[in-house]
Design brief:
CATH topology of the largest domain: 2-enoyl-CoA Hydratase, Chain A, domain 1
Number of domains: 3
CATH class of the largest domain: Alpha Beta
Number of helices: 10
Strand content: 25-35%
CATH superfamily of the largest domain: 2-enoyl-CoA Hydratase, Chain A, domain 1
Shape: globular
Length: 402
């Protein structure tokens, strides 16, 4: 009898949380502002006044109001219900963002925040959060965190992949403070203490290599990436530039609009750069809007950590014959998220579209295949810091461009 009561109470708590969520969603005015791939838009959603599930959940609210012994924090229940409801989609990229976290989240998107500087993704295999890549020069990179590391705990607390937003919030904090991480790297367990800093994401860096071969590298696509890329190219062009290597290895993606702007620099006006396809099969075609300003041989370097917007850039230039790909197959994130901001200040990052390359190739869970498959040697232990004399991928690109 006691077990039955405990089970009923557990169900009651969970259902009342969902009741609060449904009631909240139905009574919120259906006006949302969202940022989609870097472009401001307004969307309006229509919701029905009531539903069968709303009626059913209200029954449980009545029960819990009548029988539950403890204190009820309606706001906490509502937020927990929203998170659980969204996690039920089982989509690693769809995420609820609380009002308190929304401002920080938008700063992250635009490329500036306080933390340790890592890109993370849910890992279905381990049920934990996996590091896609640390940001170059970040506290995480300096501490030795590597792509593929699994985050076991933060400050002594274990978290699952379903608590991605919680982990992110725990890792962030005030500049100068530290966070303790336990990581799993293969069979090795690592305990690190990392100091938080104000992170400027994604500096675009360029240099001239031998034979007037230019080299440009950046780790994500943020608010000013395309303009910074153009500036770096123009500086190299003044040095009798003859060809270009774009290093997208360990680039975790970012704003799709910035990837398309960079592709626009290298493709003929009117060329299809990307197809965006929604759940109903409706397509939006992205095309180059300007005449190309870069018309030299180009090679793009990729690896298993090249993801999302960086795959769009690599895939479009490959399909259009504007660049060759050297390295290893990319990560394979080929879906697009929109960030919806509700009127109460909270938000929802939600997967809304799948993208396809100009030749109609899908990327999601497939990746971009290189034209020249080149592995790094076994002596390389940190893919974020490859000595140039061991960088077989870069060497191959230089050889092809000579």
């Amino acid at each position: 009898m006691e077990k039955k009561k405990s089970y009923q109470l557990y169900k009651t708590i969970m259902m009342i949380a969902l009741t609060a969520f449904i009631t909240f969603m139905l009574t919120t005015i259906a006006g949302y502002t969202y940022i989609t791939k870097g472009e401001g838009k307004i969307a309006f959603l229509n919701t029905e006044e009531s539903s069968d599930i709303d009626t059913a959940l209200n029954k449980y609210k009545t029960i819990i109001d009548q029988y539950y012994l403890g204190e009820i924090d309606e706001e906490k229940l509502k937020e927990g219900a929203i998170k659980g409801y969204i996690e039920g989609l089982d989509d690693p990229y769809t995420q609820y963002i609380s009002k308190e976290d929304m401002e920080q989240y938008m700063q992250d998107i635009l490329g500036n925040y306080v933390g340790i500087g890592i890109y993370m993704v849910k890992d279905a295999k381990t049920g934990k959060i996996k590091v896609v890549s640390p940001i170059k020069g970040s506290p995480a990179a300096k501490a030795g965190i590597l792509p593929g590391d699994i985050i076991v705990s933060v400050d002594g607390n274990d978290y699952s992949s379903e608590e991605a937003d919680t982990i992110s919030n725990k890792i962030k904090g005030e500049a100068g403070t530290t966070v303790k991480l336990q990581l799993l790297r293969g069979t090795q367990t690592l305990d690190l203490e990392v100091k938080r800093e104000s992170i400027t994401v994604n500096p675009v860096e360029g240099k001239m290599l031998e034979n007037q071969i230019g080299y440009i590298e950046f780790s994500s696509f943020d608010e000013n990436t395309a303009e910074d890329f153009k500036k770096e190219y123009e500086q190299l062009a003044k040095q009798n530039l003859k060809s270009l290597i774009i290093d997208l290895r360990n680039n975790g993606g970012g704003l799709v609009s910035q990837a398309l702007k960079i592709a626009d620099y290298m493709t003929d006006k009117g060329s299809v750069l990307l197809y965006e396809v929604d759940k109903n099969g409706k397509e939006e075609v992205k095309k180059a809007e300007n005449n190309p300003i870069i018309q030299i041989p180009i090679i793009i370097l990729t690896n298993e950590n090249t993801a999302s917007a960086s795959e769009i850039l690599a895939g479009s230039l490959k399909d259009l014959g504007k660049a060759k790909i050297v390295g290893t197959k990319s990560y394979g994130k080929g879906v697009i998220q929109e960030v919806l901001t509700l009127k109460d200040g909270s938000g929802l990052k939600i997967t809304t579209e799948e993208y396809q390359t100009p030749n109609r190739n899908k990327i999601n869970k497939v990746g971009i295949e290189p034209d020249e498959m080149v592995e790094l040697p076994d002596t390389v232990t940190n893919v974020l810091d490859v000595p140039q004399d061991q960088d077989t991928q870069l060497k191959k690109a230089i050889e092809m461009l000579k």
